[in-house]
Amino acid sequence: VFFVKVFFFFALWHEATFVVNVTQSSYEAEENQNITLEWTFTSRTQGSYRELFIYCEAITDHGVFVIYHMHKGVEIPASQDDQFSGRVQIDKDVLREGRIRLHVSRLRTEDSGLYLCDVMTDYGFNSGRCRLKVTGEKKYY
């Protein structure tokens, strides 16, 4: 019983030291524009990301959609929902710095919603969230 309690305490402490934050809690853009959503996570500069797991999804009025998935440092494009296919790219150069930059192109009003990003490394697990509001494209006559 003592071992279980110590292990449980260590697991909670370890998770609490790993943090995922959003650089902005809310984004606004117009239809057909591009946007970059950004999260930061606790990283060690010498850390290996062979164990990096990233799972980002959008919760919208039209459903829940996988927008990006990486498992053990390898992108899994087959798990991306069709609504976002070809419209989401990640900036891999900043992952080692503990940054996730998701570029979403050709925004649609139905992309509006809550965006969640789960991150797990050999250092811990946590998640961050932000909101995106996409308004109709303004027409100038």
TrEMBL record:
The organism's place on the tree of life at top rank: Eukaryota
Alphabetical keyword list: Cell membrane, Disulfide bond, Glycoprotein, Immunoglobulin domain, Membrane, Receptor, Signal, Transmembrane, Transmembrane helix
UniProt xrefs under Pfam families: V-set
InterPro entries cross-referenced by the UniProt entry: Ig-like_dom_sf (IPR036179), Ig-like_fold (IPR013783), Ig_V-set (IPR013106), T-cell_Activation_Regulation (IPR051713)
Any Gene Ontology biological process: immune response
Keyword Transmembrane in record: yes
Name used for this protein in its record: Immunoglobulin V-set domain-containing protein
Membrane topology, as annotated: Single-pass type I membrane protein
UniProt source species: Poecilia reticulata
Ranges for domain Immunoglobulin V-set: 24-134
Keyword Membrane attached: yes
Compartments, as annotated in UniProt: Cell membrane
